[in-house]
Design goal:
Helix 5 packs across helix 10. The longest helix has 23 residues. The chain has 16 helices and 15 strands. It is α/β, with parallel strands linked by helices. Strand 7, helix 8 and strand 8 form a beta-alpha-beta unit. It is globular. The strands form 4 sheets. Strands 4-10-9-8-7-5-6 form a 7-stranded mixed beta sheet, with helices on both faces. Strands 11-12-15-14 form a 4-stranded antiparallel beta sheet, with helices on one face. The chain has a two-stranded parallel ribbon with strand order 1-13. Bound molecules: pyridoxal-5'-phosphate (PLP). The site of pyridoxal-5'-phosphate has 14 residues, from helix 5.
Length: 417
Amino acid sequence: MLGYWKYLEKSDPEIYSMIQKEEHRQQSMLGMIASENHASPAVLVAAGSCLTNKYAEGLPGKRYYGGCEHVDEVEELAIERCKELFGCEHANVQPHSGTQANMAVYFSQLEPGDNVLAMNLSHGGHLSHGFNINFSGKLYNFFSYGVKRDSETIDYDQMSELAKEHKPKLIVCGASAYPRTINFEKIVQIAHENGARVLADIAHIAGLVCTGLHPDPIPSCEFVTSTTHKTLRGPRAGTIMCKKEYTKTINSAVFPGMQGGPLCHVIAAKAVAFAEAIRPDFKEYAKQIINNCQALAEALLSKGFRLCTGGTDNHLVLVDLRSYNEKLTGAQVETWLHDAGIVVNKNLIPYDTRKATETSGVRIGTPALTTRGMKESHMEQIAEWIDLVLASEGDEKVVSNIRNDTIALCRQYPIPG
Ligand SMILES: *Cc1c(COP(=O)(O)O)cnc(C)c1O
């Protein structure tokens, strides 16, 4: 594969150099976007392989093209590993992304105009859970539950009331910016009392779920979707897990319902990532993500920051900047921290009064730095740097000094591979 790089360098120096620059950016900055990670070299090689050349519409053994004997083996292995990893009855590993995994479940269960209940985007939900300009919000009639004003945890009573009132066909749970565990059994109970099924979207927390470090939706929920590139640390893609009885409807919703040919190279990379996550050391990794996040939370709290829900159970914290300094916006803080070498994203906090392009919060996650081998003491150090940058309101000197420190830390903990 190294030969491929030389080839690219010669044949397309522009793209080659952009990829080189991106690699350098990742190596030299502290990546704390909660939805990002560093996939292993094995995953990267599989995703960059000649499998991208193969058309394989259909499922293993039932393809619409010849020459599928090897990609059939790859996809069968990916399915088996996904089932083993999550303990699910059926898996479809073809969705190109998390959003498309959700789309396939919707297509399998809903007609346009049907009622669906999902978490409010501005309380931590996801675009594909009914945002008005996303396909989901355009096609279906979404109602949303949120978090309680005081505890900022999911308001299961509100969910129950909305389910009674609107009788949705599907209740969607799972979030992109929620620092606490989700009670899947309670959601299933609410759904079943009201004749609904449940889709648990574990895009963010899959790596914690498959290692037993977050409550498991597989036994109780009819459908579970995930991305494979967040805490699971695989290639950028999606996967669907479901009860056996939904095998046919899910498979046909993916193809021909929603996609054409599967990305065989990415399916191979998913298989590699599933195998990595089955290994015992992945559980150590997942535990360290949480330990690091709790160390980060404690350190930020001790510097006077307020965290939504008061802390974290998982891989991310949601910082409410208002009590630290009323004037700060997430957008401003994102830029300052970026200049200091710490990459986070602005994020709405529940009941935010600012716009999504400004926000009163930032979301900070530990999966990627944990992959680099960083531990609790490094999180304390990073919290200190965050405090210094924000206390100085982005003072150029302070920022550039900390930039030197973050470069030094990055050098000590290179991205594996
Ligand atoms: C990231 C995410 C997705 C979608 O992932 P894409 O691969 O970007 O489409 C879906 N649901 C939730 C909750 C997510 O956090």
